[in-house]
Design a protein that fits this description.
The protein is mostly helical and 112 residues long. The protein has a single domain, classed as Arc Repressor Mutant, subunit A. The chain is built from three helices and three strands; from the N terminus they run αβαββα. Helix 1 crosses helix 3. The mean pLDDT is 89.
Length: 112
């Protein structure tokens, strides 16, 4: 990837997946990253994104390592916005394919 700024980012599907993995780790695990779930391409991308300030990323001190992760991640505002946008796209695709009806959509369940 050539040198770029946060404003010039266009992510591949793999990079989008990595961003959403990191977002999950941030939300559900306090920013701890389980490096066993990342391949070398993921790690290289994370380091590039950290270098341009899109995310923060680094190592947790050895004494604080645990099974939830040995590295940490933080997001810039731009990373949060992109992750949110990607989550909404995924949700919208899923909802467009839903195979159920809601009670509000059926007239027989509406009380009069």
């Amino acid at each position: 990837m050539p040198d770029m700024t946060k404003d010039e980012l266009v992510l591949s599907k793999s990079e989008q997946s990595t961003l959403l993995y990191l977002e999950t780790r941030l939300v559900d695990y306090g920013g701890r990253v389980d490096m066993r779930r990342m391949n070398s391409d993921d790690v290289a991308w994370v380091r590039r994104m950290s270098a341009i300030g899109f995310i923060g990323f680094g190592r947790i001190v050895l004494q604080d390592h645990n099974s939830e992760g040995t590295n940490w991640v933080t997001f810039s505002d731009e990373a949060w916005k992109m992750a949110h946008h990607l989550r909404r796209e995924i949700a919208d695709r899923g909802l467009s394919k839903r195979q159920y009806r809601t009670t509000q959509e059926t007239s027989s369940t509406v009380r009069k």
